[in-house]
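[recover] target loaded
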C-alpha cells in the first residue's frame, strides 16, 4: 500500500490515511439532488471525489464506495425551511416527482460518463430506504436524542457535548449561510435542531409521503446519508466526501445523528471540495441559465477539457470558471493527446527506469491529492529518456486515475479530438516530406494512416481525410 496523506476537515490537518481495516476503504459520497441538471460546479466535486477514489485504488486499496441520490426531503434551504427541491422541479416541468427524479438521475450519470467519473459501487435513492430512516429515528427518540414537536421529529442538538465538530465558526454566521429565507421554526428547542421526519409541512401538496409512527410524512435530508451509509458500509466509515457547503449543516448533522445512534465515533476522515465559482460568485441551479456539460459541448469543448481544467488546480482551492481559461486548457489538452498519439509502440518495457516516475506519480497523489503535481509527472514522462513503449505504459497506468483518455485507442466511428489531432499532425509531416521531395517518406506516412483505417486525399483545397468504413 502506498502512503496517502489527506487534509481532514475533522482535525483541520493533513494526516496519513489509515483505514479501519487494512487494505480496505469504505467511502461515502453525498449524491446529487435530482431536481435539475448538475452544474459544472457540482461536477467539480464529483470529479475530485472520483480522483480520490482512484488514488486509493492506485495506492493498492480495495474501495467500496456508496452514494445516495436525494429524491426527497432536501428543502430549498439546507436548514430545513422552504419548499422541497424535488417538488419545485416537478412543478416547473409539470411532471411527477418520480419522473423528475428519473430524468435528472439519468442526466447526472450521462454527465459522469462523459467526464469519465466512475459510478460508485452502490447508488441508493433515498426513497428506497424509508424503513431504515424510520428505524434510526425511532432509536434516537428512545435514547432521548430526538423529540416530536408540532407533528415533526427533531434532533436535539443540546444533547451533544460537541455539536460543531467539523467547524469552528460562529453559530449565527453558520445559520445565516445555510438558509435562503430567515424564517424561524417555532417547534425547534434550539436554533440548530434539525428535522428528522416531517409531517407538518406548510406545503400540503408534498407528493411523496409515507406512513410512520409519527404520522404520514417524509424524511429530512440529513438522515438519508447517515442511514444509507450505515446500511451499506456498517458502523465504521473511513472517509466521507462532499462539497464544502456540506460541512454545515449537512455533515455536522450527519455526525450528530450517526454517533448518537451508534454510540461511538463514526467516520475518521472528511474530504471537502472547494467551490467552483463563476464571475458573479457562487454557482446555483436555481439561477436560470447555468453552466452544464452539455452547454460546454455545444460551445465546442470536449467534456474531458473540463476534467483537465479541474485537475490543474488543487481541490482545496476555490476555482473561478472562465471561457478564456477553458480555451487555454483546450489547447493544452489537444497538444497533450496529440503528443501521446504520436508515440510509437516500439521497445521493451524499461521497468527499472519507469519506477522513478511511478513513485513520483504516487507521491503527488499521496500529497493530499495534488493533481497538478501529478500532471507534471505526465509531462516529465513525455520528456524522459525512455522508449515509447515505456512512456505509453506509464501514461496508461496514470490515466487509470486521471481518466483523461490519454492513451485511449480511438474507435473508428468516433471522430474525436485525439484522432483529428493525430491525423492532422501526420498530414503536416507528409506535406513537409513532399516539400523536401522525400516521396518515400510521404508514401510511408500515407501507408501508415491507411493501415490505421484512415484515407487521405489531395484536393485543390488541401489534403482531406476520412475513415475507411
Ligand atoms: P446538490 O445536488 O445540490 O445536492 O449538490 C451536489 C454536490 O455538489 C454537493 O456535494 C455539493 O456540496 C456540491 N456543490 C454544490 N455547489 C458547488 C460548487 N459551486 N462547486 C463545487 N461543488 C459544489
Ligand atoms: Zn449527504
Amino acid at each position: 500500500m502506498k502512503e496517502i496523506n489527506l487534509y481532514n476537515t475533522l482535525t483541520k490537518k493533513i494526516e496519513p490515511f489509515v483505514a479501519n481495516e487494512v487494505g480496505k476503504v469504505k467511502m461515502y459520497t453525498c449524491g446529487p439532488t435530482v431536481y435539475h441538471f448538475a452544474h459544472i460546479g457540482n461536477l467539480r466535486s464529483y470529479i475530485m471525489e472520483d480522483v480520490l477514489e482512484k488514488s486509493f485504488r492506485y495506492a493498492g486499496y480495495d474501495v467500496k464506495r456508496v452514494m445516495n441520490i436525494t429524491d426527497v426531503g432536501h428543502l430549498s434551504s439546507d436548514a430545513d425551511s422552504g419548499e422541497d427541491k424535488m417538488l419545485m422541479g416537478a412543478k416547473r416541468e409539470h411532471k411527477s416527482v418520480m419522473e423528475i427524479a428519473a430524468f435528472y438521475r439519468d442526466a447526472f450519470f450521462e454527465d459522469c460518463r462523459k467526464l469519465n467519473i466512475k459510478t460508485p459501487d452502490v447508488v441508493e435513492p433515498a426513497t428506497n430506504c424509508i424503513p431504515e430512516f424510520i428505524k434510526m429515528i425511532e432509536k434516537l427518540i428512545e435514547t432521548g436524542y430526538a423529540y416530536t414537536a408540532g407533528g415533526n421529529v427533531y434532533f436535539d442538538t443540546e444533547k451533544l457535548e460537541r455539536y460543531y465538530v467539523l467547524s469552528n465558526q460562529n453559530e449565527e454566521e453558520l445559520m445565516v449561510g445555510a438558509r435562503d429565507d430567515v424564517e424561524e421554526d417555532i417547534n425547534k428547542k434550539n436554533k440548530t435542531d434539525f428535522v428528522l421526519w416531517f409531517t407538518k409541512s406548510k406545503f400540503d401538496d408534498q407528493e411523496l409521503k409515507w406512513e410512520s409512527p409519527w404520522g404520514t410524512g417524509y424524511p429530512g435530508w440529513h438522515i438519508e446519508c447517515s442511514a444509507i451509509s450505515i446500511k451499506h458500509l456498517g458502523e465504521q466509515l473511513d472517509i466521507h466526501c462532499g462539497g464544502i457547503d456540506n460541512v454545515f449543516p449537512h455533515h455536522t448533522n450527519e455526525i450528530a445523528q450517526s454517533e448518537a445512534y451508534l454510540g461511538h465515533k463514526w467516520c475518521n476522515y472528511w474530504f471537502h471540495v472547494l467551490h467552483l465559482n463563476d464571475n458573479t460568485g457562487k454557482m446555483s441551479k436555481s439561477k436560470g441559465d447555468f453552466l452544464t456539460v452539455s452547454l460546454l459541448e455545444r460551445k465546442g469543448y470536449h467534456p474531458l477539457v473540463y476534467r483537465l481544467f479541474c485537475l490543474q488546480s488543487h481541490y482545496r482551492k476555490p476555482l473561478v470558471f472562465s471561457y478564456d481559461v477553458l480555451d487555454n486548457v483546450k489547447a493544452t489538452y489537444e497538444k497533450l493527446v496529440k503528443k501521446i498519439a504520436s508515440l510509437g509502440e516500439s521497445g521493451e518495457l524499461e521497468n527499472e527506469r519507469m519506477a522513478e516516475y511511478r513513485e513520483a506519480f504516487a507521491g503527488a497523489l499521496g500529497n493530499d491529492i495534488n493533481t497538478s503535481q501529478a500532471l507534471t509527472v505526465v509531462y516529465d514522462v513525455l520528456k524522459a529518456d525512455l522508449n515509447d513503449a515505456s512512456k505509453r505504459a506509464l501514461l496508461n497506468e496514470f490515466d487509470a486515475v486521471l481518466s483523461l483518455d490519454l492513451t485511449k485507442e480511438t474507435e473508428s466511428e468516433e471522430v474525436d479530438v485525439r484522432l483529428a489531432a493525430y491525423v492532422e499532425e501526420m498530414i503536416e509531416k507528409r506535406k513537409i516530406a513532399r516539400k523536401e521531395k522525400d516521396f518515400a517518406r510521404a508514401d510511408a506516412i500515407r501507408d501508415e494512416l491507411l493501415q490505421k483505417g484512415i484515407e487521405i486525399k489531395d484536393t485543390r483545397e488541401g489534403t482531406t481525410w476520412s475513415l475507411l468504413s
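[recover] notes: The first strand starts at residue 5 and ends at 8.
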